[in-house]
């Protein structure tokens, strides 16, 4: 191999390493792993708890419904089952995420209580000064709304 080709390959792998080690890619990889674990939980919830409860009221298994065209059978029932399962999973996921977000946003709102301001802007020189200032330390203007302090 020519030296130029080796340097090109090395540069390619260095770029790939820089790409793979960026935070976004690692965060995405963690998200995919956690997402697949969460998918197993949601699928179990839907398959083991919610679908049997729905089955008490409705016969939700359409897998035997087939449209026969000549020798070809179109499994419309399996497709309907997939749509129903998707809607159930999407609804359960929506409810779980809505509850999680409500809990998270409640904690976040409590943590982010706005702090009272400690500074203000002088209306004359536009300098930032203490909120308690009676006179501006920069332009010495008397600020309105404060009584003159005499010693």
Automatic annotation (TrEMBL):
The chain crosses the membrane at residues 25-54, 74-97. InterPro entries: Mechanosensitive_channel_CS, MS_channel, MSC/AndL, MscL_channel. The keyword Transmembrane helix applies. One of its GO terms (cellular component) is plasma membrane. It comes from the Bacteria. The keyword Metal-binding does not apply. Keywords: Cell membrane, Ion channel, Ion transport, Membrane, Transmembrane, Transmembrane helix, Transport. One of its GO terms (molecular function) is mechanosensitive monoatomic ion channel activity. It is a multi-pass membrane protein. It is found in: Cell membrane. Pfam families: MscL (PF01741). Its main location: membrane. Homopentamer. Belongs to the MscL family. Channel that opens in response to stretch forces in the membrane lipid bilayer. May participate in the regulation of osmotic pressure changes within the cell. NCBIfam families: mscL. This is Large-conductance mechanosensitive channel. It comes from Faecalibacterium hattorii. The gene is mscL.
